Amino acid sequence: MALLLAIESSCDETAVAIIRGSAGQATEVLASEISSQIALHREHGGVVPELASRNHSLHLRGLVEKALADAGVTMPEIDAFAATTGPGLASSLLIGSTAAKGMACAAKRPFLGINHLEGHLLSPFLDQTSVPPHVALIVSGGHTLLLDVEGPGIYRKLGGTRDDAAGEAYDKVGKMLGLPYPGGPEIEKIARGGNPTAYDFPRSMLHEPHLDFSFSGLKTAVLYTLQKETSALPIADLAASFQQAVIDILVRKTLRAAKEAGRRRIALSGGVSLNQALRDAFREAAERDGLEISVASPVFCTDNAAMIAFAALLRHLAGESSRLDGDIHPNLPLV
Ligand code: KG4
Ligand code: ZN
């Protein structure tokens, strides 16, 4: 049985989690604390890196203490410490990784530097210790990635975005529609009252042979429509039609990827996978094609430290650890 404490601070959420697990047994999340900075960055319309790192350092200690108290464990009982070391904002990554290294050093325990994307990737399997072969779609604010997953640590990239990430497109379209940051959850709310077929927005690259994505054409199409609209803006219809285009692209490319890779299971993770319309569309499509589907639990879709702890646990159980003099990597690729 191993007890791990992990820190996530790659962007604008400061998070600390403690999990317990062992080979072949269900993993238990004993604590998952998050201090969101969304309200702080909202007035700037996006994340301000310096504000983010300063707030990580202000909140981290309190979150570690709260996580230990909620988990009912003490620092000397922790077997290993982990932190996100990339990709993300350099100054934010430094706060979490330096804190985790400091604790590992003081407690004389191993440190594990974790790729944020591996955290998202494995989050649909957080309550298990085995990760079955599947095709994964990570859809977040910074990434849209299709991967073939043989098992933990064995990943092959099938496709990615050539311009904006899906979450980035949501956020930019949200801004155009005058909605608060981040646009994703706001568009989802407004789209519920709209007609998804009101506007026929483009589904870029859908019929091309590769598995890459492009969302900038869709974003521009929404902008042109907005500029042409003369009457009162039908925001709900615009939001619903935009969202439908995103969903169609993601679902169809992911199902095609599963077919091409010969996998019978697909998995969804990342902030955008919190979207209920997207989750419903994926479940329906998977059922139609006779595929199994694993979706990250809603609390583990957006940035959190439990997913980082889980990725670290699998590596720790496999005997891996990272060097204390290792650097952070703002552009760290997953594959
Ligand atoms: O995974 P995440 O918390 O951070 C990154 O690693 O990027 O994802 C944040 C992204 C933002 O772009 C946000 O607008 C989007 O996830 N998002 C959503 C929803 N909730 C968050 N997009 C669509 N529908 C949602 N309900
Ligand atoms: Zn993320």
Provide structural commentary.
With 335 residues, the chain is of the alpha/beta class. The protein has 10 helices and 10 strands. It has helices at residues 38-42, 49-71, 90-107, 116-122, 166-176, 183-191, 216-228, 235-261, 276-288, 306-317; strands at 2-8, 13-21, 28-36, 80-86, 111-115, 134-139, 144-151, 154-160, 265-269, 292-295. Strands 3-2-1-4-5 form a 5-stranded mixed β-sheet, sandwiched between helices. Strands 8-7-6-9-10 form a 5-stranded mixed β-sheet, sandwiched between helices. Helix 9 links the parallel strand 9 and strand 10. The mean pLDDT is 96.
> Hetero groups bound?
5'-O-[(R)-(carboxyoxy)(hydroxy)phosphoryl]adenosine, zinc ion
How many strands appear in the DSSP assignment?
Answer: 10
The pLDDT mean sits at 96
Q: What is the strand arrangement across the widest sheet?
A: 3-2-1-4-5
Using the alpha-carbon principal axes, give the shape: globular
Radius of gyration, taken over Cα atoms and rounded to an integer in Å: 20 Å
Indicate the low-confidence ranges by residue numbers: none
| Sheet of most strands | 5 strands, mixed
Distance between the termini: 29 Å
Q: Helicity, in percent?
A: 40-55%
Question: How much β-strand is present in the residues?
Answer: 15-25%
Number of helical segments with 4 or more residues: 10
Broad structural category = alpha/beta
The SSE order reads EEEHHEHEHEEEHHHHEHEH
